Every structure is written in structure tokens, then in C-alpha cells.
Amino acid sequence: MAIGTKDLAVTELDGFDDERLVAELKKAKEELFNLRFQSATGQLESHGRLKAVRRDISRIYTILRERELGIRTAPSASE
């Protein structure tokens, strides 16, 4: 994985159920909001973090959509 949060790799996101993915999505959106606010007020130290969080959000949306279309399968309850 080139850019993004190390703990949100595609292989790890595949192991999450849909509720956990939605929770991670909500956390990432809140973080992006806070980063944009810091950027607007001139307090942002790491501009690369904005790009990483946006990619994490896109990655989660992609996995959710692929599961909706049947391209990927959600992990079974037995795992």
C-alpha cells in the first residue's frame, strides 16, 4: 500500500464486517473534517495526512460497494 493508514490495508478491511466498516468510515470522515479545519486555520502540520485519510475513505467505500455488487464477500460469522 503506497499511501494511507497502515492499519487500514485492503487485506485487513476485507476481514471487517459491514458495521465495522461503517464505523471506520465515520471515524475517517471525522478525522478529515478536523484536518480540513486545522488546514483552514493554519494549524495543520502534516498536509500529507489529508491525502491519506481521503484514500482511506475511498478504500472503504470501494469495499462496501464491491460487497453490495457481489464482487467481494463479507467475512462469515464463523471466522
UniProtKB/TrEMBL annotation:
Q: Does the keyword Ribosomal protein apply?
A: yes
Q: Could you give one GO CC term from the UniProt record?
A: cytosolic large ribosomal subunit
Keyword Ribonucleoprotein carried by entry: yes
Q: In the record, which residues are listed under signal peptide?
A: none
Keyword tags: Ribonucleoprotein, Ribosomal protein
Q: Which GO terms describe its molecular function?
A: structural constituent of ribosome
Q: Which GO terms describe its biological process?
A: translation
Q: Which InterPro entries match?
A: Ribosomal_protein_uL29 (IPR050063), Ribosomal_uL29 (IPR001854), Ribosomal_uL29_sf (IPR036049)
Family that this chain belongs to: Belongs to the universal ribosomal protein uL29 family.
- Output the HAMAP family linked to this UniProt entry: Ribosomal_uL29
Matching NCBIfam families: L29
Q: What is the name of the protein in this document?
A: Large ribosomal subunit protein uL29
